[in-house]
């Protein structure tokens, strides 16, 4: 077997080095991610250029790329806060957020990869303590759930808006009160509901009684008007008309003349 030419060995070594270099320089950024470039010999974190996008990227082997998820993310947070009267309230919330893509380099440089734990969640805890402290346990349990959710979101958003984080929404999943307080509130709400039902039945009965009274008054007024209009002359005329119609009937009958000047005939028949 002939010996390899002297140039072959350096070529093979060079080829191997190129492969190693490419493998160290090639980076694949997945869907929903972006990369922050760190130049070891060029000033550190790149903040004045857009982050590296999805797909296959080639960087110098001595540089580094830090991968961030830039799609919407969710974290769950359980908090202990105090109500306006000092009672301990447990609050469960879901937080929807994402890093601001155009400031990803700044976020990495100033906050780091743990930015959610270092910046976002402390801001939400602070806002929740501030908001919940304005309400009583009864308000938190019943009517003000949507209000506190909106207020916590707005206050948290103000805190993180200049921290390169985009806060999309905060959802309050559960508000847990001390058992004794919860039972007292439920009893009170039940009593209020029963009171409202009683008032409704009372108003309904009053309306029904008023309706019957109006109908009775209407009938009485109608009868009074009718009685006032039925004079003796009118009654006599109507009696005469009825007698004439009956006398014209083919059925056999007996006519009895009433007594007095204005007496009306009485007609008796076998049919």
TrEMBL record:
Keywords: Hydrolase, Membrane, Protease, Transmembrane, Transmembrane helix. It comes from the Bacteria. One of its GO terms (molecular function) is peptidase activity. It is found in: Membrane. One of its GO terms (biological process) is proteolysis. The keyword Transmembrane applies. One of its GO terms (cellular component) is membrane. Pfam families: Band_7 (PF01145). The chain crosses the membrane at residues 7-27. The keyword Flavoprotein does not apply. SMART domains: PHB (SM00244). Residues 24-189 form the Band domain. It is a single-pass membrane protein. Its main location: membrane. PANTHER family: PROHIBITIN, PROHIBITIN 1. This is Regulator of protease activity HflC, stomatin/prohibitin superfamily.
């Amino acid at each position: 077997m002939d010996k390899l030419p002297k140039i072959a060995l350096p070529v093979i070594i060079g080829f191997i080095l190129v492969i190693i270099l490419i493998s160290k320089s090639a980076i694949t950024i997945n869907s929903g991610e972006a990369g922050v470039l760190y130049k070891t010999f060029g000033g550190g974190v790149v903040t004045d250029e857009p982050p590296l996008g999805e797909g296959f990227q080639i960087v110098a082997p001595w540089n580094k790329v830090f991968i961030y998820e830039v799609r919407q993310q969710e974290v769950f947070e359980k908090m202990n806060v105090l109500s306006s009267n000092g009672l301990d309230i447990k609050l469960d919330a879901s937080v929807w957020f994402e890093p601001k893509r155009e400031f990803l380099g700044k976020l990495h440089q100033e906050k780091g990869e743990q930015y959610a734990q270092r910046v976002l969640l402390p801001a939400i805890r602070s806002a929740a303590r501030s908001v919940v402290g304005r309400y009583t346990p009864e308000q938190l349990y019943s009517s003000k759930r949507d209000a506190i959710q909106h207020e916590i979101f707005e206050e948290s958003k103000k805190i993180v808006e200049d921290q390169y984080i985009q806060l999309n929404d905060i959802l309050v999943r559960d508000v847990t009160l001390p058992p004794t307080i919860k039972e007292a509130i439920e009893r009170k709400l039940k009593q209020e509901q029963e009171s409202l039902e009683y008032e409704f039945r009372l108003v309904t009965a009053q309306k029904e009684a008023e309706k019957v009274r109006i109908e009775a008054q209407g009938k009485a007024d109608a009868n009074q008007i009718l009685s006032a209009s039925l004079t003796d002359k009118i009654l006599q005329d109507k009696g005469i008309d009825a007698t004439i119609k009956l006398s014209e009937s083919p059925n056999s009958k007996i006519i009895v003349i009433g007594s007095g000047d204005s007496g009306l005939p009485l007609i008796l028949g076998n049919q």
